[in-house]
Amino acid sequence: MVVLLVIKASLRFLSFNQFKKAYAYTLRVRQAGVYPKQYIADAAWAVQTAAFRLPFALTCLPQALALKYILRCDPDMPLHIGVQTAAPQGFEAHAWVEKDGHIVIGAWPEETNYRPIWVWQ
After folding, report:
1. Distant-in-sequence contacts of 48-51, Cβ < 8 A, 24+ apart
2. pLDDT tops 90 at residue 109
């Protein structure tokens, strides 16, 4: 929950460039590793549950950033930011984290499709 709160505050009070530098610094690890599938699923569940329990809304971006931070030793978990150009409101953005081509956090309904525009490795 603390990770979510720090990310939410950082996104609110830092410029995007400042946030990007600070977040990239926190993602540095001495030794890369791979997490078991169940650990990844449990971490995603914990992030989503903590986000749901907070008294304010946490969108997909803070959740995806928190999960990527928690699982930062695994270099093969890219964070995607994408857009849905055919959205009913005309434009919608979304963030998600993948592992081996499967969405770990930030899944969307089948009738929706987001096109990645930026990937944070």
Report:
1. 48/105, 50/1, 50/4, 51/4
2. no
